[in-house]
Amino acid sequence: MELNLFLEPLNEEIHIVENHQRKSFADVVLMHTQKSSFPDLEKVRMAIVGVKEDRQAINNEGCAAGPDKVREELYKLFYHWPDIQLADLGDIRQGHSIDDTYFALSQVCGQLIRDGIIPIIIGGSQDLTYANYQAYQNIGQLVNLVSIDPCFDLGQEEDGLHARSYLSKIILHQPNFLFNFTNLGYQSYYIDKDALDLMSNLLFDVYRLGNIRAMPEEAEPVVRNADILSFDISAIKAGDAPGNANAGPNGLSGEEACRICRYAGMGDKLSSIGFYEYNPLHDKNNITAQLIAQMIWYFIDGYALRSLDMPKSDSKDFARYTVRIEGQEEDVVFLRSKKTDRWWIDLSFGRKDRKKYEKHHFVPCSKRDYEQALQDDIPDRWWQFYQKLM
């Protein structure tokens, strides 16, 4: 596929300062510009894809201008990873209709993922997550989607596809290849109780903002289980990220957002990430653009630390712990990586599921889950995924 058919070169008005003594992003990134040919992607590990699209934004029109502002801040930062080649492919050509933009983004992301390249999507509105999800359809892969968002974005039954309803469209999409959805950082006063009940009935994970702030390390296994991560900038409090018309007084801090992005980079499964809803019209001194640039920096830094320690059947690189819980027929089996000390729940024993479920037999968890099981208390993660695989 000729990816450049869907992509416009970088805007020449972007202010890029190069300093070859400092090795900034501007010196290292392979850029798709009008003056240079489309980058050779053979050795590229990650690729920035801008999407200047906000026709389905809700109360945040103007976020289409976000990608170039983020680039200006990103290109100033130091680049610390000489062995990781990053490309900037420019921007998805805005289609005549919004569906044309979705199609172009899904085609570009799908090809990059098949080639082992992680798309770093800079939007634009969060309904673009739907197009990112569609990229996995032709790959034939069941996926886990993690959304960092103060809301669930389910919308109303009569709604079309927009930034506040994209999740419903993903859930109802046929063929369906969503294995699990997780929300990190929802704020209860924005959530209808019926929506919470729906999440529970669908066996999806939801984590309140207060829980994530109290135990930020518990976000790591959640993000480690993601194939797709979608980050709504309105999940960050307005004091740290004012560049969003829907920003509120509460939310993640900038430091917490960067930490989550680093976790995402470290996750061996994650194959695409998107940053959405940044609106330069509401930004002050480019603070939000700087923060998103730093979030991308931390994502790459996490990627540089990937250890490829995902469990496999009969692997000798993991310590195995079997916990018998009173009144429970099946043992709860945990694995601990001898390389990284990270933990998983092993649900592979006795399974005869089809091949497409194999990678979901090992569920990332924390040592806290193991300690909970030792107290004769079944971890929520074990129960949730056990039900999904029954």
Features:
390 residues; alpha/beta; Arginase, Chain A; 2 domains; ten-stranded mixed β-sheet; 12 helices; globular
What order do the helices and strands come in, and which of them pair?
Elements: E1 7-8, H1 25-28, E2 30-31, E3 44-50, H2 66-74, E4 85-92, H3 98-114, E5 118-122, H4 128-134, E6 143-148, H5 166-172, E7 178-186, H6 193-201, E8 205-208, H7 209-214, H8 219-224, E9 228-232, H9 254-266, E10 272-276, H10 287-304, E11 318-323, E12 332-337, E13 343-346, E14 362-365, H11 367-374, H12 380-389
Parallel strand pairs: 2-4, 3-4, 3-5, 5-10, 6-7, 6-9, 7-8, 9-10
Antiparallel strand pairs: 1-4, 11-12, 12-13, 13-14
Helix pairs in contact: 2-10, 3-4, 4-5, 9-10
What does this structure look like?
It is a single chain. With 390 residues, the chain is α/β, with parallel strands linked by helices. It folds into two domains: 3-304, Arginase, Chain A (3-Layer(aba) Sandwich), CATH 3.40.800.10; 318-389, no CATH class. The protein has twelve helices and 14 strands. Strands 1, 2, 3, 4, 5, 6, 7, 8, 9 and 10 form a ten-stranded mixed beta sheet that branches. It has a four-stranded antiparallel beta sheet with strand order 11-12-13-14. Helix 3 (98-114) crosses helix 4 and helix 4 (128-134) runs parallel beside helix 5. It is globular, with a radius of gyration of 21 Å. The model has no long low-confidence stretch (mean pLDDT 92).
Q: Would you kindly provide a brief summary of this structure?
A:
With 390 residues, the chain is of the alpha/beta class. It has helices spanning 25-28, 66-74, 98-114, 128-134, 166-172, 193-201, 209-214, 219-224, 254-266, 287-304, 367-374, 380-389, and strands at 7-8, 30-31, 44-50, 85-92, 118-122, 143-148, 178-186, 205-208, 228-232, 272-276, 318-323, 332-337, 343-346, 362-365. The longest helix is centred in the last third of the chain and has 18 residues, at 287-304.
